[in-house]
Amino acid sequence: MKICHVIYIPRFSGAEILVRELARDHAAKGHQIAVISLMPLEESFRSQQQLLEQANVDMAFPTRMLGKYGRFQFLTQQLRRWKPDIILGHAVIPSLYAQIAAKLAGLTQTSVINVLHDASQDDYASWYFQALEKWIAPDADAVVAVSQLGAENYVKRIRPVSVPYVIPNGINLERIVQASSQREQVRNQVFSVSDQDVVYLQVGRFNQIKQQHLTLQAYAQAAQTAEFTSKLFLAGIVEDPNYEQSLRQRVAELNLENQVVFLGARSDVPELLAGADVYLMPSKQEAHSVAFAEALASGITIVASDIPSFQYGRSFQGVDLIQPEQTEVFARRLTESAYTAVQVRWHRDLSAYAIEQTANAYLNVFQALSPCQ
Protein backbone atom coordinates (compact mmCIF):
# COMPACT_ATOMS: atom_id res chain seq x y z
CA MET A 1 0.00 0.00 0.00
CA LYS A 2 1.23 3.51 -0.81
CA ILE A 3 0.62 5.77 2.19
CA CYS A 4 1.26 9.52 2.14
CA HIS A 5 1.37 11.81 5.20
CA VAL A 6 0.81 15.54 4.67
CA ILE A 7 2.11 17.78 7.47
CA TYR A 8 2.36 21.54 7.89
CA ILE A 9 5.93 22.05 9.11
CA PRO A 10 8.62 19.35 9.48
CA ARG A 11 9.53 20.18 13.07
CA PHE A 12 10.09 18.39 16.34
CA SER A 13 6.52 18.43 17.66
CA GLY A 14 3.91 15.89 18.73
CA ALA A 15 2.06 15.38 15.44
CA GLU A 16 5.27 15.11 13.45
CA ILE A 17 6.73 12.59 15.90
CA LEU A 18 3.60 10.46 15.51
CA VAL A 19 4.04 10.65 11.74
CA ARG A 20 7.66 9.57 12.13
CA GLU A 21 6.69 6.52 14.17
CA LEU A 22 3.80 5.53 11.90
CA ALA A 23 5.99 5.91 8.83
CA ARG A 24 8.77 3.78 10.23
CA ASP A 25 6.40 1.05 11.48
CA HIS A 26 4.43 0.86 8.24
CA ALA A 27 7.59 0.94 6.12
CA ALA A 28 8.97 -1.98 8.13
CA LYS A 29 5.78 -3.89 7.27
CA GLY A 30 6.49 -3.45 3.56
CA HIS A 31 4.33 -0.45 2.71
CA GLN A 32 5.61 2.47 0.62
CA ILE A 33 5.56 5.67 2.66
CA ALA A 34 5.88 9.34 1.77
CA VAL A 35 5.85 12.48 3.93
CA ILE A 36 5.04 15.80 2.24
CA SER A 37 5.03 19.17 3.99
CA LEU A 38 3.57 22.59 3.15
CA MET A 39 6.44 24.49 4.77
CA PRO A 40 10.25 24.13 4.68
CA LEU A 41 12.15 21.88 7.04
CA GLU A 42 12.99 23.29 10.47
CA GLU A 43 16.43 22.45 11.82
CA SER A 44 14.84 20.71 14.82
CA PHE A 45 13.55 18.00 12.46
CA ARG A 46 16.88 17.27 10.77
CA SER A 47 17.62 14.22 12.93
CA GLN A 48 14.12 12.88 12.32
CA GLN A 49 14.60 13.32 8.58
CA GLN A 50 17.64 11.08 8.82
CA LEU A 51 15.63 8.40 10.66
CA LEU A 52 12.98 8.50 7.96
CA GLU A 53 15.62 8.25 5.24
CA GLN A 54 17.03 5.15 6.94
CA ALA A 55 13.53 3.64 6.81
CA ASN A 56 13.34 4.37 3.04
CA VAL A 57 10.57 6.92 3.49
CA ASP A 58 10.13 9.28 0.55
CA MET A 59 10.08 12.95 1.63
CA ALA A 60 9.21 16.16 -0.17
CA PHE A 61 9.62 19.49 1.66
CA PRO A 62 9.55 22.93 0.00
CA THR A 63 12.93 24.65 -0.04
CA ARG A 64 11.41 28.10 0.59
CA MET A 65 8.31 29.67 2.08
CA LEU A 66 5.28 29.35 -0.18
CA GLY A 67 2.04 31.28 -0.40
CA LYS A 68 -1.33 29.53 -0.48
CA TYR A 69 -1.28 29.04 -4.25
CA GLY A 70 2.31 27.81 -4.12
CA ARG A 71 1.44 25.25 -1.46
CA PHE A 72 -1.43 23.88 -3.52
CA GLN A 73 0.80 23.70 -6.57
CA PHE A 74 3.63 21.97 -4.69
CA LEU A 75 1.35 19.45 -2.97
CA THR A 76 -0.63 18.70 -6.14
CA GLN A 77 2.58 18.06 -8.09
CA GLN A 78 3.90 15.73 -5.40
CA LEU A 79 0.64 13.79 -5.19
CA ARG A 80 0.52 13.39 -8.97
CA ARG A 81 4.10 12.12 -8.87
CA TRP A 82 3.55 9.71 -6.04
CA LYS A 83 -0.07 8.53 -6.65
CA PRO A 84 -0.76 7.24 -3.10
CA ASP A 85 -3.56 4.86 -2.14
CA ILE A 86 -4.05 6.67 1.19
CA ILE A 87 -3.43 10.31 2.13
CA LEU A 88 -3.42 11.43 5.76
CA GLY A 89 -3.70 15.16 6.42
CA HIS A 90 -2.37 15.83 9.91
CA ALA A 91 -4.26 18.72 11.58
CA VAL A 92 -6.71 21.18 10.07
CA ILE A 93 -4.59 23.11 7.55
CA PRO A 94 -2.74 20.11 6.02
CA SER A 95 -6.06 18.23 5.83
CA LEU A 96 -7.74 21.05 3.92
CA TYR A 97 -4.86 21.22 1.47
CA ALA A 98 -4.76 17.43 1.10
CA GLN A 99 -8.50 17.11 0.45
CA ILE A 100 -8.42 19.77 -2.28
CA ALA A 101 -5.04 18.82 -3.79
CA ALA A 102 -6.10 15.18 -4.15
CA LYS A 103 -8.97 16.32 -6.37
CA LEU A 104 -6.74 18.69 -8.32
CA ALA A 105 -4.31 15.81 -8.88
CA GLY A 106 -7.11 13.64 -10.24
CA LEU A 107 -6.65 10.93 -7.61
CA THR A 108 -10.20 9.61 -7.77
CA GLN A 109 -9.28 6.21 -6.30
CA THR A 110 -7.26 7.63 -3.41
CA SER A 111 -8.75 7.79 0.10
CA VAL A 112 -8.12 10.95 2.11
CA ILE A 113 -8.12 10.85 5.93
CA ASN A 114 -8.41 13.92 8.15
CA VAL A 115 -6.37 13.40 11.34
CA LEU A 116 -7.37 15.75 14.18
CA HIS A 117 -4.41 16.75 16.36
CA ASP A 118 -5.36 20.17 17.71
CA ALA A 119 -4.17 20.79 21.27
CA SER A 120 -7.44 22.51 22.16
CA GLN A 121 -9.28 19.28 21.28
CA ASP A 122 -11.62 21.42 19.15
CA ASP A 123 -9.95 21.68 15.77
CA TYR A 124 -12.85 23.51 14.17
CA ALA A 125 -13.74 26.03 16.88
CA SER A 126 -12.86 28.77 14.37
CA TRP A 127 -15.81 29.71 12.12
CA TYR A 128 -13.29 30.21 9.30
CA PHE A 129 -12.07 26.61 9.43
CA GLN A 130 -15.64 25.38 9.88
CA ALA A 131 -16.69 27.16 6.69
CA LEU A 132 -13.72 25.84 4.73
CA GLU A 133 -14.31 22.26 5.87
CA LYS A 134 -18.07 22.36 5.32
CA TRP A 135 -18.35 24.29 2.09
CA ILE A 136 -14.99 24.37 0.30
CA ALA A 137 -13.00 21.20 0.97
CA PRO A 138 -14.25 17.91 -0.47
CA ASP A 139 -15.41 15.48 2.19
CA ALA A 140 -12.66 13.35 3.70
CA ASP A 141 -13.15 9.62 3.31
CA ALA A 142 -12.50 9.16 7.03
CA VAL A 143 -11.75 11.18 10.13
CA VAL A 144 -9.35 10.06 12.86
CA ALA A 145 -9.23 11.88 16.20
CA VAL A 146 -6.53 11.30 18.80
CA SER A 147 -9.07 11.75 21.61
CA GLN A 148 -12.76 11.03 22.16
CA LEU A 149 -13.42 14.70 22.86
CA GLY A 150 -11.80 15.64 19.56
CA ALA A 151 -14.12 13.22 17.76
CA GLU A 152 -17.19 14.56 19.54
CA ASN A 153 -16.23 18.13 18.66
CA TYR A 154 -15.87 17.21 15.00
CA VAL A 155 -19.34 15.70 14.97
CA LYS A 156 -20.72 18.79 16.69
CA ARG A 157 -18.94 21.33 14.52
CA ILE A 158 -18.81 19.76 11.08
CA ARG A 159 -20.83 16.67 10.20
CA PRO A 160 -23.28 15.23 12.75
CA VAL A 161 -23.71 12.06 10.69
CA SER A 162 -20.00 11.30 10.69
CA VAL A 163 -18.53 8.89 13.22
CA PRO A 164 -14.76 9.56 13.49
CA TYR A 165 -12.31 6.85 14.41
CA VAL A 166 -10.59 7.44 17.75
CA ILE A 167 -6.94 6.31 17.79
CA PRO A 168 -4.86 7.57 20.74
CA ASN A 169 -1.28 8.52 19.95
CA GLY A 170 1.26 5.78 20.53
CA ILE A 171 4.82 5.94 21.81
CA ASN A 172 8.04 4.03 21.19
CA LEU A 173 8.32 2.04 24.42
CA GLU A 174 11.52 0.29 23.35
CA ARG A 175 13.29 3.63 22.92
CA ILE A 176 12.23 4.73 26.40
CA VAL A 177 13.44 1.49 27.99
CA GLN A 178 16.80 1.82 26.24
CA ALA A 179 17.16 5.44 27.38
CA SER A 180 16.67 4.51 31.03
CA SER A 181 20.23 3.18 31.22
CA GLN A 182 21.66 6.59 30.32
CA ARG A 183 20.60 8.49 33.45
CA GLU A 184 24.09 9.11 34.80
CA GLN A 185 25.44 10.12 31.39
CA VAL A 186 22.62 12.61 30.80
CA ARG A 187 22.98 14.15 34.25
CA ASN A 188 26.71 14.61 33.71
CA GLN A 189 26.87 15.65 30.08
CA VAL A 190 23.54 17.39 29.44
CA PHE A 191 22.28 18.67 32.78
CA SER A 192 25.69 19.10 34.47
CA VAL A 193 24.28 18.33 37.92
CA SER A 194 25.41 16.27 40.87
CA ASP A 195 23.69 13.20 42.25
CA GLN A 196 22.16 15.33 45.00
CA ASP A 197 20.61 17.93 42.70
CA VAL A 198 16.93 17.65 41.84
CA VAL A 199 16.24 18.07 38.12
CA TYR A 200 12.86 19.41 37.05
CA LEU A 201 12.01 19.06 33.36
CA GLN A 202 9.28 20.49 31.14
CA VAL A 203 9.06 19.56 27.46
CA GLY A 204 6.75 21.40 25.09
CA ARG A 205 6.72 24.09 22.45
CA PHE A 206 7.06 27.63 23.77
CA ASN A 207 3.49 28.81 23.55
CA GLN A 208 1.06 30.26 26.10
CA ILE A 209 -0.96 27.04 26.00
CA LYS A 210 1.97 25.14 27.57
CA GLN A 211 2.09 27.67 30.44
CA GLN A 212 5.82 27.64 31.12
CA HIS A 213 5.27 30.97 32.91
CA LEU A 214 3.32 29.14 35.62
CA THR A 215 6.20 26.69 36.00
CA LEU A 216 8.61 29.59 36.50
CA GLN A 217 6.38 31.20 39.14
CA ALA A 218 6.02 27.98 41.09
CA TYR A 219 9.68 27.04 40.76
CA ALA A 220 10.85 30.45 41.97
CA GLN A 221 8.66 30.13 45.04
CA ALA A 222 9.70 26.54 45.74
CA ALA A 223 13.41 27.32 45.32
CA GLN A 224 13.26 29.90 48.11
CA THR A 225 12.23 27.37 50.76
CA ALA A 226 13.55 24.02 49.51
CA GLU A 227 16.23 22.30 51.56
CA PHE A 228 17.90 20.90 48.46
CA THR A 229 19.56 22.27 45.34
CA SER A 230 17.77 21.99 42.03
CA LYS A 231 17.64 23.06 38.40
CA LEU A 232 14.76 23.56 36.00
CA PHE A 233 15.18 22.64 32.32
CA LEU A 234 12.76 23.87 29.65
CA ALA A 235 12.91 22.05 26.31
CA GLY A 236 10.91 22.62 23.14
CA ILE A 237 10.67 24.42 19.84
CA VAL A 238 10.07 28.18 19.93
CA GLU A 239 6.61 28.61 18.41
CA ASP A 240 6.00 32.05 19.93
CA PRO A 241 9.30 34.01 20.08
CA ASN A 242 7.74 36.84 22.09
CA TYR A 243 6.49 34.42 24.72
CA GLU A 244 9.85 32.66 24.93
CA GLN A 245 11.61 36.01 25.31
CA SER A 246 9.23 37.01 28.11
CA LEU A 247 10.15 33.81 29.94
CA ARG A 248 13.84 34.61 29.66
CA GLN A 249 13.21 38.10 30.98
CA ARG A 250 11.24 36.67 33.88
CA VAL A 251 14.11 34.31 34.73
CA ALA A 252 16.45 37.31 34.87
CA GLU A 253 14.02 39.27 37.06
CA LEU A 254 13.85 36.34 39.47
CA ASN A 255 17.66 35.97 39.51
CA LEU A 256 17.36 32.36 38.42
CA GLU A 257 19.83 32.40 35.53
CA ASN A 258 21.97 29.75 37.24
CA GLN A 259 19.01 27.49 37.97
CA VAL A 260 16.79 27.69 34.86
CA VAL A 261 18.12 26.39 31.54
CA PHE A 262 16.52 26.72 28.11
CA LEU A 263 17.43 23.62 26.12
CA GLY A 264 15.71 24.48 22.83
CA ALA A 265 14.31 21.80 20.55
CA ARG A 266 15.51 18.31 21.49
CA SER A 267 15.41 14.94 19.76
CA ASP A 268 16.57 13.09 22.90
CA VAL A 269 13.46 13.46 25.08
CA PRO A 270 13.53 9.83 26.34
CA GLU A 271 17.10 10.40 27.53
CA LEU A 272 16.14 13.71 29.17
CA LEU A 273 13.34 11.94 31.01
CA ALA A 274 15.79 9.30 32.23
CA GLY A 275 18.11 11.97 33.64
CA ALA A 276 15.40 14.13 35.25
CA ASP A 277 13.63 13.60 38.58
CA VAL A 278 10.31 15.44 38.21
CA TYR A 279 8.42 16.07 34.97
CA LEU A 280 6.20 19.16 34.77
CA MET A 281 3.30 19.63 32.37
CA PRO A 282 1.05 22.55 33.43
CA SER A 283 -0.62 22.75 30.00
CA LYS A 284 -3.85 24.66 29.65
CA GLN A 285 -5.12 22.21 27.03
CA GLU A 286 -3.89 19.06 25.33
CA ALA A 287 -5.29 16.39 23.05
CA HIS A 288 -3.72 12.95 23.58
CA SER A 289 -0.22 14.15 24.39
CA VAL A 290 2.72 12.05 23.22
CA ALA A 291 4.92 13.85 25.76
CA PHE A 292 2.65 12.94 28.68
CA ALA A 293 2.54 9.27 27.62
CA GLU A 294 6.33 9.17 27.23
CA ALA A 295 6.76 10.67 30.69
CA LEU A 296 4.44 8.05 32.17
CA ALA A 297 6.35 5.26 30.45
CA SER A 298 9.69 6.57 31.71
CA GLY A 299 8.64 6.12 35.34
CA ILE A 300 9.43 9.71 36.29
CA THR A 301 7.41 11.53 38.97
CA ILE A 302 4.90 13.82 37.24
CA VAL A 303 3.19 17.06 38.26
CA ALA A 304 0.68 18.09 35.59
CA SER A 305 -2.52 20.00 34.96
CA ASP A 306 -5.81 18.57 36.08
CA ILE A 307 -7.29 18.65 32.57
CA PRO A 308 -9.50 16.03 30.85
CA SER A 309 -6.80 14.57 28.61
CA PHE A 310 -4.53 13.82 31.59
CA GLN A 311 -7.15 12.09 33.73
CA TYR A 312 -6.03 8.61 32.70
CA GLY A 313 -2.78 9.40 34.50
CA ARG A 314 -4.61 9.14 37.83
CA SER A 315 -4.55 5.35 37.54
CA PHE A 316 -0.74 5.37 37.79
CA GLN A 317 1.50 5.93 40.81
CA GLY A 318 3.61 9.04 41.07
CA VAL A 319 1.24 11.29 39.10
CA ASP A 320 -0.06 14.48 40.73
CA LEU A 321 -2.70 16.45 38.81
CA ILE A 322 -3.19 20.02 40.02
CA GLN A 323 -4.50 23.46 39.08
CA PRO A 324 -1.20 25.13 38.12
CA GLU A 325 -2.72 28.62 38.36
CA GLN A 326 -2.69 28.08 42.13
CA THR A 327 0.96 29.00 42.49
CA GLU A 328 1.33 28.08 46.16
CA VAL A 329 -0.11 24.61 45.57
CA PHE A 330 2.06 24.13 42.48
CA ALA A 331 5.17 25.21 44.38
CA ARG A 332 4.37 22.93 47.31
CA ARG A 333 3.96 19.95 44.95
CA LEU A 334 7.34 20.69 43.40
CA THR A 335 8.99 20.49 46.78
CA GLU A 336 7.04 17.46 48.02
CA SER A 337 7.54 15.46 44.83
CA ALA A 338 11.29 15.99 44.92
CA TYR A 339 11.79 14.10 48.19
CA THR A 340 10.60 10.79 46.71
CA ALA A 341 11.48 11.41 43.07
CA VAL A 342 15.24 11.15 43.57
CA GLN A 343 14.82 7.67 45.06
CA VAL A 344 11.90 6.22 43.10
CA ARG A 345 11.19 5.38 39.47
CA TRP A 346 7.58 4.28 39.16
CA HIS A 347 6.72 1.07 37.31
CA ARG A 348 3.84 1.87 34.99
CA ASP A 349 2.36 -0.39 32.31
CA LEU A 350 1.94 1.71 29.15
CA SER A 351 1.68 -1.25 26.77
CA ALA A 352 -1.80 -0.08 25.74
CA TYR A 353 -0.16 3.01 24.23
CA ALA A 354 2.61 1.23 22.31
CA ILE A 355 3.19 2.68 18.85
CA GLU A 356 2.75 -0.81 17.36
CA GLN A 357 -0.90 -0.85 18.48
CA THR A 358 -1.47 2.65 17.15
CA ALA A 359 0.13 1.78 13.81
CA ASN A 360 -2.01 -1.37 13.48
CA ALA A 361 -5.16 0.64 14.26
CA TYR A 362 -4.33 3.00 11.38
CA LEU A 363 -3.73 0.04 9.07
CA ASN A 364 -7.18 -1.29 9.98
CA VAL A 365 -8.67 2.03 8.90
CA PHE A 366 -6.70 1.90 5.63
CA GLN A 367 -7.91 -1.63 4.94
CA ALA A 368 -11.51 -0.61 5.57
CA LEU A 369 -11.17 2.20 3.03
CA SER A 370 -9.17 0.18 0.47
CA PRO A 371 -10.10 -3.48 1.08
CA CYS A 372 -8.38 -4.60 -2.12
CA GLN A 373 -4.98 -3.33 -0.95
UniProtKB/TrEMBL annotation:
Q: Where does the record place the Glycosyltransferase subfamily 4-like N-terminal domain?
A: 13-175
Residue ranges of every copy of the Glycosyl transferase family domain listed in the record: 194-310
Q: Which UniProt keywords apply?
A: Glycosyltransferase, Transferase
**Enzyme Commission no:** 2.4.-.-
Enzyme class, UniProt record, top EC level: transferase
Q: Which InterPro entries match?
A: Glyco_trans_1, Glyco_trans_4-like_N
PANTHER family hit by this protein: BLL3361 PROTEIN, GLYCOSYLTRANSFERASE
Q: What is this protein called?
A: Glycosyltransferase family 4 protein
Organism, per UniProt? Leptolyngbya boryana CZ1
